[in-house]
Amino acid sequence: MEHQATFSKFKEDFYSRFDDISIFDCGDxxxxxxxxxxxxxxxxxxxxNKNSVVFTFQLSVIFLYVLQFYYxxxxxxxxxxxxxxxxFKNKEYLLIDIGGVTWKNGEVALTFYDKIxxxxxxxxxxxxxNSSQDSVFYQDIKTNHLEHLYDLTKEEHIxxxxxxxPQDIALKRNLIKTYNKLKExxxxxxxxxxNIAYAIELFYRNFNYCSTVFRGSKFKKAFIICHYHKEYIxxxxxxxxxxxxxxxxGIIAQSDIFYVFPKVVATGRDKCLFPDYICxxxxxxxxxxxxxxxxxxxxxxxxxxYMAGNIxxxxxxxxxxxxxxxxxxxxxxxxxxxxxxxxxxxxxxxLSEQIKDNDEWIIVVKIHxxxxxxxYADIRNLKNxxxxxxxxxxxxxxxxxxxxSIYSSVLFDSLKYSLFRFTxxxxxxxxxxxxxxxxxxxxxxxxxxxxxDIIQNSDVLKSESIxxxxxxxxxxxxxxxxxxxxx
Length: 487
Known about the structure:
By secondary structure, the protein is an alpha/beta fold. The protein has 2 domains: 1-308 and 472-487, no CATH class; 317-466, Glycogen Phosphorylase B (Rossmann fold, 3-Layer(aba) Sandwich). 35% of the residues lie in helices and 16% in strands. The chain has 18 helices and 18 strands. The chain has helices at residues 7-15, 32-41, 43-46, 61-78, 114-120, 155-158, 166-185, 190-213, 231-239, 283-289, 317-324, 341-354, 377-380, 393-399, 409-413, 430-438, 451-457, 477-482, and strands at 25-26, 29-30, 93-97, 101-104, 107-110, 125-130, 135-140, 145-151, 221-225, 244-247, 277-280, 300-302, 330-335, 361-366, 385-388, 402-405, 420-424, 443-445. The strands form 4 sheets. The chain has an 8-stranded mixed beta sheet with strand order 8-7-6-3-9-10-11-12. Strands 15-14-13-16-17-18 form a 6-stranded parallel beta sheet, with helices on both faces. Helix 7 (166-185) packs antiparallel against helix 8 (190-213).
């Protein structure tokens, strides 16, 4: 399964193995999404020391208490405190971010929640940043600084991973029982079982942290960006009957692994650790979600593009000046995505060669915020290519004539502007690309085609043919509060 060519084939293979998701039942919830996390991420491939990985959820409770005592004694000898004091006073709303944050000298800037926080009141929010599997921050409202909520690279935070309360012991037993059931079913290979165990371990470890750190909290609602890989906190909140609202953060496609679930999920969706509600940018995304079975119509709300105009923390003045100096030329904007650099580098090299004698055009490569510029070193010095991570996307789109990507949300963002849109044809991503083409979002582009030749010789879709509001309805606080989420 790990080597399936497309997400669609991944889903087809996975769901062909069983007729009933109850095989993933684990006490009062279902670990379907946790299993999908393990198989999709493929922790086996990423693990450097596969043979030395220890899954604590399988260890005896007595041993874990001994381990906890060992860490606390070690810290005591070093004179390090392992207690954490976090105030939840007047905190009604938990906001769970995915790292859409930067800070300089401790000053925090948010990108996803800017309008939401303004609407509901910053003083009522506890902001929780999950920057990696090992490190979580929260925002201190008084100082506007980021503080570690926990960090698995620090011994004083490791201690709390083994602080068991009664429901954790029951959870541990249920996880062992369910994992053994999957193992005995012979539905999964040895490598897949490793990946499943690894995902269960991360879920279990992080749930223990939530149980420790959030003790004393009285949240009325929780907002989450990106529901997948966050099953631990969804389970924690559901046990405490806190409504969970997801905010759309990017493309939702029919072929997505963590959206548009098949009919087999319908009978057990209430146990599958989905958010209770989801707020989307426009009617198009609601229509896509309703073709799946994880949400009912009254669980999906169209609130508009709450991210439009939010603080852009990637802007760099020097970078902006460089690109401003080239605005006299026509711009071909190439918007990249994580883990796909080989496709973009190859195509930019080809396109650079194609237009090398055409002084009217310049190629601007806008890399994904989660990527490093070093990955694109091979194209950094091409004379007709500008490589940027920091330039404001809205400014770039407003100045560009052509935008090229594979299945980036930038293609949808570009609907607000009058330009030509192309999606690169990549075999292993053909399911995503096909959806973009079929919905009229972009025109197909082979990796050996020059878009300048195409726009001169054929009728290429432009944004006038699609109403942007269908995809990105303007956000208003009134629309946000008008939903029954607030009843």
